[in-house]
């Protein structure tokens, strides 16, 4: 990227962005990373005392572009933090720094070259191979906190348009696919709890720069949860302790999730990067068996970045009966736009990176934890064979999630989340998600997916980007997935598939391995 472009005007205040949903409970839903980055940058620019960050990865050149419909602006996140440190704001960045992924070393070099004040801008790493620091937290002034959806890497930027191809979204991480994600801004007691979690993680770091050995003060006492109709609880996963000052071992996320699913009576909505956890799949099946009126709607990736997960998902969904269950709908997101002057349409998978579970609009979990063993309990749980179970027993990432329990009759935070997500996924900006239509929500999703499939098969011309909802396919490549889910054939040049992975990309995760080892 040219230097003059990278130094363009900063993004405007995020309040103008349309995907943001502010609730009365101190919660702001930030849908897609153009919205999340704008809100985060705005908070960092107004920080007075401190900015504390935990991240899986943080590339110095990570750029936040303005959202669709806003003036063209470009901001480097690293530059915003450098400016804050120059104002004597205490900036602390904690990153994964193991052999699987280490952006702490190059980020330190970047800030050293920029002559950052080492007293105000500090970087530490957590090196717990093969476990990862997967929690993505930003705490500003101890009063405002973000649970960020994505690592700070350019391949994860996107806005609500989800253009099939976009030069602002390089192919390195996800093959250039558009990305859907969700972040969450919190205040009050939940923000204090996340601040305490940061202090614990910071003090337990393995990779500490010389002269920065002094631990932070003891973790702050979490303030009482805010009064109102929504109670917010922060839950964490953490691996076994190896030495003093490291956070205690935790497996809080899975029990909280299973408790939430056990409450289900009418509707469970899941959108997740992966669904391989036997415990979660079993809980979904148990809820369906217990409640004859329950519907389950799931949005998944057709081609996860860790390719073993595709096979695990398919095998376990089939073995549990969820693939063919009449009250379960499995879906995938696609996006289409005009390709060129020839009139062809380009289509691409939308990579779902969000981690959302909603139950009856009264309970929700949002955070960094995937629905897999390594985020929830132990990676060994994902393997069916003895060797994998033994080798990966106890392997668990650092993860964090917010659990929302709507306790009053006027609580709307969880409903507002589902409404905002469904308006995007169903390509229905005026959708009223409060009252289910006749026949239920699953029938409505199936109707819209069939409508989108008919549109694709008809080869209708398209003059603007649009989201396409299709049934989830068990096939391995996008062309076969489109054929199975929508009956689309490619006998002519009317449709172009932007992401068309090779056999190796489908089965061997070369992109993921390259990213981890780079």
Description:
With 518 residues, the protein is of the alpha+beta class. Helix content is 29%, strand content 23%. It has helices spanning 3-6, 33-45, 77-86, 104-113, 189-203, 253-262, 278-290, 308-319, 373-376, 386-391, 413-425, 441-458, 478-486, 503-507, 510-517; strands spanning 21-22, 27-31, 50-55, 63-65, 74-76, 90-98, 101-102, 121-126, 137-140, 144-147, 179-180, 182-187, 207-208, 230-238, 250-251, 267-272, 295-299, 328-338, 345-349, 351-352, 355-359, 363-367, 399-406, 466-471, 495-497. Strands 14, 15, 16, 17, 18, 19, 21, 22, 23, 24 and 25 form an 11-stranded mixed beta sheet that branches. Strands 1, 2, 3, 6, 7, 8, 9, 10, 12 and 13 form a 10-stranded mixed beta sheet that branches. A hairpin with a 3-residue loop joins β21 and β22 (363-367). α2 (33-45) runs parallel beside α3 and α6 (253-262) runs parallel beside α7 (278-290). It is globular. The model is unreliable at 1-18 and 221-228 (pLDDT under 50).
Name given to the CATH architecture of the domain at 3-229: 2-Layer Sandwich
- What is the number of helices? 15
Number of strands: 25
Nearest-integer average pLDDT:
88
Q: Please, what is the CATH homologous superfamily of the domain at 3-229?
A: Endonuclease Chain A
- The share of residues in helices is 25-40%
Radius of gyration: 22 Å
Please name the CATH topology of the domain at 3-229: Endonuclease, Chain A
Distance between the termini: 20 Å
CATH class of the domain at 3-229: Alpha Beta
Shape: globular
Question: In terms of structural class, how would the helical and strand content be classed?
Answer: alpha+beta
